[in-house]
């Protein structure tokens, strides 16, 4: 009594009252409306700009910018063109965003897990942290840190000295190793150590599978990386020349420096976003069914094994999507840096806009930067999310 | 505790437990379980049956009295708890398989991490257990791809992978469709015939009659009556057990 396999019918009903026809009609109406509005906006802007004699186009990008930038990863001076200034802005934004995302993830996860602590004091402190930092507007927090750094620290001329580190309204100045070819050996050593650590982890994993003996998968690899790095540095002649900051008459000179603007933006964004990340982590862990934890315990797994092998892998799929939101928020909130004068892409574009009057172009560039970074973050996180999804059919 | 009989693998001695300050869930429980004995625990919901067996592997902790499992007293001592959990397997009403691991990985997780068994050996042993519950062909699938009955059989195989001396079943068939109850009970009957100590909370009276050495009836945190299945079902001694039996056998 076998039935011959049949393919599903392909014919559709296209009558006036069919769902297919209605659906198509609504889509056409929507596309026409959106296209019409976009055309009207573009035409209107172009017409107004023509009437008022506003120049448009991106040719200004190659002209000299004519302004200085407070801090930059590469050398920049006022004779450099606008496009270079833009790049400095983008790099400053990315510097805050990337460092911020890393630090926020670490801090937020610690606080989120801390809310499950058996210690009441730790639990209370973590909750107090979350409630304090997520309920004060982030702009206020940035201003507060900036004020703290600039109001309560001494003038540059009376910089506070702790060892070879200087603290002042100008920021933190610290000794920086002078780059020599010997350092190259150290860097090479770190790289070799990283490769070695990777092999060690593979070996430890296969050893565990072969004999059941559990080896350290974190501290030993870290030790390998550091040890080989130090060996390389010694092989390179152990260069240990530091550029030590010196107090000059008007400023602290030499060494490496972190400006108060950078520190305020980074600290403000990290502390604010970590409160949200902590809540994301907490809700992720508590979303894993209680029975999972009980089954792990009944099987004799230790607390750490239970967290690592059972709870976290399942919490991850709940954590990732809202975590992506927080990463995007942090990146976009970094545009508030303009309020305290950190030269991020918004701040520099504003200056460029004021000088050239190319408002549409400058705003479009800013939007392009944020759209690109945000979409890249989203793509990466979506890929990661798909990877850690649970198979159900 | 020097007076205990060597043949008793589990000894409850005046065990008391409260939830919060007011709910007295276990009251003066005295119970000896012999090695290889098969016990069915029944009683109305909220009577403390689940709590009773969950005390045996310390998923719940008792607050008064002594509880000795295979010669080790259960206290706050972490080492003792670890030792006992290796000897006690448990099957839950809601299966509680790990959904992010395959069936085979579910079975090998504990032998590898707790039993320090090489992966190959753990997998061979796991396949043996899967064959025993007649589900070996599903080893590569994920739990949520299986039916409820299959999942529960996997859960039984997982508990057996540590070669426990005692198996605890907490209403293993209550979340299953009627068709699937039989396949799970069949597996449990087979196990019972192999001499492992079993304590099973269930309302499957057919199962109780077929395999149990003793039926324990609980109500309001107390063991009200215990007897052989034949005596318990045909000649209940207390009003509460008569009332309970008339309700579950009424249809």
Question: SSE layout and pairings?
Answer:
The complex is a heterodimer of chains A (393) and B (251).
Chain A lengths: L18 H33 L30 H33 L5 H15 L3 H15 L7 E3 L2 E4 L2 E4 L1 E2 L3 H31 L7 H17 L6 E2 L2 E2 L4 E2 L2 E3 L1 H28 L2 H9 L4 H31 L11 H12 L2 H29 L6
Antiparallel strand pairs in A: 1-2, 2-3, 3-8, 4-5, 6-7
Helix pairs in contact in A: 2-7, 2-10, 3-7, 4-7, 5-6, 7-9, 8-9, 9-11, 10-11
Chain B lengths: L7 E12 L3 E12 L3 E5 L6 H8 L7 E6 L2 E2 L4 H10 E4 L11 H11 L5 H14 L15 H13 L5 E5 L7 H15 L4 E5 L3 H7 L2 E6 L2 E6 L1 H6 L4 H10 L3
Parallel strand pairs in B: 3-8, 3-9, 6-7, 7-8
Antiparallel strand pairs in B: 1-2, 1-4, 4-5, 9-10
Helix pairs in contact in B: 3-4, 3-5, 4-5, 5-6
Structural overview:
The complex is a heterodimer of chains A (393) and B (251). By secondary structure, chain A is mainly alpha-helical. Among the domains of chain A are: 54-149 and 260-343 and 355-393, MetI-like fold (Orthogonal Bundle), CATH 1.10.3720.10; 183-237. Chain A has helices at 19-51, 82-114, 120-134, 138-152, 181-211, 219-235, 260-287, 290-298, 303-333, 345-356, 359-387, and strands at residues 160-162, 165-168, 171-174, 176-177, 242-243, 246-247, 252-253, 256-258. In chain A, a hairpin with a 2-residue loop joins strand 2 and strand 3. The longest helix of chain A is centred in the N-terminal third of the chain and has 33 residues, at 19-51. Chain A is globular, with a radius of gyration of 28 Å. The model of chain A has no long low-confidence stretch (mean pLDDT 87). With 251 residues, chain B is of the alpha/beta class. Helices cover 37% and strands 25% of the residues of chain B. The longest helix of chain B has 15 residues, at 178-192. The termini of chain B are far apart. The mean pLDDT of chain B is 91. At the A-B interface, helix 5, helix 8 and helix 9 of A face helix 2, strand 6, helix 3 and helix 4 of B.
